[in-house]
């Protein structure tokens, strides 16, 4: 059983880490998995799905690499982050 704020806590951690990236940095969720496991009790696994600007989707990605030196990954709205509690 998860706490009521589990989904919001996950969203905040993901958004903060993505928005801390500098232009040209690759988006590598594994870099903030330790923070998620430490701060969000009861969650045993994470899978990330990333969407490109054109709407294409990458399922269960390890990272988003090849971001241009003048481009940066960003989360503009915390509601754009979806938390699926699984089965």
List keywords for this structure.
mainly alpha; 2 helices; 24% helix; two-stranded antiparallel sheet; 87 residues; single chain
Explain how this protein is built.
This protein is mostly helical and 87 residues long. The protein has helices at 6-19, 33-39; strands at residues 50-51, 57-58. Strands 1-2 form a two-stranded antiparallel sheet. Strand 1 (50-51) and strand 2 (57-58) form a beta hairpin. The model has no long low-confidence stretch (mean pLDDT 82).
Q: Number of helical runs?
A: 2
Structural class: mainly alpha
Mean pLDDT: 82
The ordered H/E elements are HHEE
What best-fitting shape do the alpha-carbon axes yield? globular
Oligomerization: single chain
Low-confidence stretches: none
| Spatial order of strands in the largest sheet | 1-2
Number of DSSP strand runs: 2
Radius of gyration, in Å, reads 13 Å
Distance between the termini: 12 Å
Residue fraction in strands:
under 5%
Report on the biggest sheet.
Answer: 2 strands, antiparallel
Helix content: 10-25%
What's a quick, concise take on this entry?
The chain is mainly alpha-helical. The protein has 2 helices and 2 strands, in the order H-H-E-E. The protein is globular.
SSE topology:
Blueprint: H1 6-19, H2 33-39, E1 50-51, E2 57-58
Antiparallel strand pairs: 1-2
């Amino acid at each position: 059983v998860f706490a009521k704020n589990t989904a919001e806590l996950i969203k905040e951690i993901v958004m903060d880490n993505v928005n801390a990236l500098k232009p040209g940095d690759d988006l590598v969720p594994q870099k903030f998995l330790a923070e998620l496991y430490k701060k969000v009790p009861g969650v045993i696994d994470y899978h990330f799905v990333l969407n490109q600007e054109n709407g294409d989707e990458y399922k269960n990605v390890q990272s988003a690499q090849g971001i241009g030196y003048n481009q940066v990954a960003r989360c503009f709205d915390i509601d754009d982050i979806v938390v699926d509690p699984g089965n």
